[in-house]
Amino acid sequence: MKVIAAYLLAVLGGNVEPSADDLKNILGSVGAEADDGKIDLLLSEVKGKDITELIASGREKFASVPSGGGGAIAVAAPAGGGGAAAPAAAEPKKEEKVEEKEESDDDMGFSLFD
Description:
This protein is mostly helical. It is built from four helices and no strands. It is flat, with a radius of gyration of 21 Å. Residues 79-114 are annotated as: Disordered.
């Protein structure tokens, strides 16, 4: 994930096609180790592709994954989306009441195992 984040930061900074050295510099600036294999794999997968199109296709795939909640997922349109239609509003979530445990004065309101 850190390699992907570094790639996205480079693109956001205006570098349309970041190199492996660019990603290593970004990761090194925050003290993270750069894995050459992961960097090479990422760069080979995104070579010649538009990052906004990759993100849009990823959102479509992610939207089809069941989340277990049964609610609709609202996805915001990308900033440069042009005349794209707004996504449907998400269904309001049902609020569930959660019973609070009575706290004892001995543990000062928190426990190691809570």
